[in-house]
Amino acid sequence: MFDKILVANRGEIACRVFESARALGVRTVAVYSDADRAAKHVALADEAVHIGGSAPSESYLRGDVIIAAAKATGAQAIHPGYGFLSENPDFVEAVEAAGLVFIGPSASAIRAMGLKDAAKALMHEAGVPVVPGYHGANQDAAFLAKQADEIGYPVLIKAVAGGGGKGMRLVEAAAEFMDALDSAKGEAKTAFGNEDVLIEKFVTQPRHIEVQVFGDGQTAVHLFERDCSLQRRHQKVIEEAPAPGMTQEVRAAMGDAAVKAAEAIGYQGAGTVEFIVDGSDGLRADGFWFMEMNTRLQVEHPVTEAITGVDLVEWQLRVAAGEGLPKQQDELTITGHAFESRLYAEDVPKGFLPATGTLAHLAFPEGARADSGVRTDDTISPFYDPMIAKIITHGPSRAVALKRMARALQETQVAGTVTNLSFLGALCAHEGFAAGEVDTGLIGRDIDRLVAAPMPTQEDCALAALVALGLDSADWPTGFHLWSAMRRTVTLCFGEEEMLAVVESLGADAHDVTLGEARVAARRVGGRWMLNGKTAPEARRVGAQVFVFAQYGLSFDVIDPLERAASAGAGAALIEAPMPGLVKAVFAQAGQEVKAGDRLAILEAMKMEHALLAARDGIVAEVLVEAGAQVDAGAALIRLEEEEAEVAA
């Protein structure tokens, strides 16, 4: 076993690797960027080395600097985590050339699976079923359109070097193909430096089921399947293991195909073989096809660990250190069911826009595993993926595991940024998902219901008022005057709705809160607040906001009447950056006439491209930014002429 390893990554996965390494008695080295100087993964490691600027290209993608850090600290091996350099074969070769061990597959195995078209051809030769489609080198647009016609619509355009839904477009009809192709190629070139695409038949009721494999370079085993069908825009949201409706026959067929795939390339370490599955008539042994292989540890690996009792990171370290496979296929079994939910800092009502912010409070409930790379007071940076944590639950059955997940989400507390907690909770409560009737289109079909914003109850609002005034603390001097209870008022804002709360203090443990016609009695009983007889949730004030930890988290703004804005702002006339990011392109010009919905600019943030659209018809008065500029959230980018001015003209 190694004495010391370096983890060439950050955040949650770096913390996860450190945990298993420490359990094996292995010392650890972290690397960090400017933005991560005070990060959790830095604090958990035995040593830490600064490797550059905040942008990944200046730090976590600098393989030469990372290798130099490993050599300088005496690390014998490098664990890549996932993302960044984890599937870069040139980095693997550089690590090995430096006399170090790469904790993962060989460069040749990564290259074999790195391009989707070549990988599918290789899998076909290995006897693994593949989806009908075109995976060739001819990238002429007219030729690709002809291939799509022959495959039959709907088809999926996919970047050959893609992943994470980038460079992927669903095309329903021939008339849409060319625009979709241009868009997919542009996004693929930005994300991967390779604009080549492949065309595949789109399965109309698809399920995404993947098989965890583990190899020693010669032989491989599978650790059963995970269902990752619950996706939004091709990005996984909630994963589970095993797959609902899976039979022993289909599991054996998929497992055999996955092992064939791994052994065909001499795979070493943890990897995932992903299959697209036709879910229109139950799972069938002839109804799944190879999609791609991820030659690394997956984000969702904890659900496999939960049902098998295997520590996959420990296996990675042991096999990389020269040991054989820790278990053979007949020694691996499934126990119970597990779910993983990905908790992100994102604004769901605004179209799942990635969010930033400082986590004023972060707490996870007992009884659930929470893999997180951040803590209270840490900042969600615009430079990296906005994941806050992965929440994992396990139970003896799918129903129990799902109930435990629903409760864990309800009891997770986040303050300081918006999150997708409510969205995840709605998914857990979805009757179709609860019944195991899941496919990749479920979220899209019910998106309006799933993203409905929670509305605070009268009790929630009353609690926010008490916290805003500091009256939730027993130390607050409530006071009396002229033999009557003290009265205070506070104005709160929830979303667009403003409310005035009048609080009458009857004593340190008793307040009455009036909200319009409603009245809420707040009484402290046994050390806990009761609101109209109901136990109050936890809450806290952070600056000018109050966070009530009910309904997955409710945020109230405390309005200071002396600091109200002088005007309502420019409204629809001003296009602002919804988040910090890089202005990738600007399509508007001063004097240009635009229609509502026209694309005016593209902002690149959190590894995704976001189109900024005109909110109304109008004429561009001023372009305030150039392509290539890095902007903050709320920065003014483009201004339209005022509507009165247009009429006068």
Features:
single chain, 649 residues, alpha+beta, ten-stranded antiparallel β-sheet, eight-stranded antiparallel β-sheet, 18 helices, 41 strands, 26% helix, globular, disordered C terminus
Structure description:
With 649 residues, the protein is an alpha+beta fold. The protein has 18 helices and 41 strands. The strands form nine sheets. Strands 24, 25, 26, 27, 28, 29, 30, 31, 32 and 33 form a ten-stranded antiparallel sheet that branches. An eight-stranded antiparallel sheet has the order 14-13-10-11-12-15-22-20, sandwiched between helices. Strands 3-2-1-4-5 form a five-stranded parallel sheet. Helix 4 (89-97) runs antiparallel to helix 5 (107-114) and helix 12 runs antiparallel to helix 13.
Describe the secondary-structure layout.
Blueprint: E1 4-7, H1 11-23, E2 27-33, H2 40-44, E3 47-52, H3 63-73, E4 77-79, H4 89-97, E5 101-102, H5 107-114, H6 116-125, E6 133-134, H7 141-151, E7 155-163, E8 166-171, H8 177-192, E9 197-201, E10 206-216, E11 220-232, E12 235-241, H9 248-264, E13 268-278, E14 288-294, H10 301-308, H11 312-320, E15 337-344, E16 346-347, E17 353-354, E18 357-358, E19 361-363, E20 369-372, E21 379-380, E22 387-395, H12 398-411, E23 413-415, H13 421-429, H14 431-434, H15 442-445, H16 447-450, H17 458-469, E24 480-481, E25 484-494, E26 497-507, E27 510-515, E28 518-525, E29 528-531, E30 534-535, E31 539-542, E32 545-548, E33 554-559, E34 574-576, E35 581-586, E36 593-594, E37 599-605, E38 608-613, E39 618-623, E40 630-631, E41 636-640, H18 643-648
Parallel strand pairs: 1-2, 1-4, 2-3, 4-5
Antiparallel strand pairs: 6-9, 7-8, 7-9, 10-11, 10-13, 11-12, 12-15, 13-14, 15-22, 16-17, 18-21, 19-23, 20-22, 24-25, 25-26, 25-33, 26-27, 27-28, 28-29, 29-30, 31-32, 32-33, 34-41, 35-37, 35-40, 36-39, 37-38, 39-41
Helix pairs in contact: 4-5, 12-13
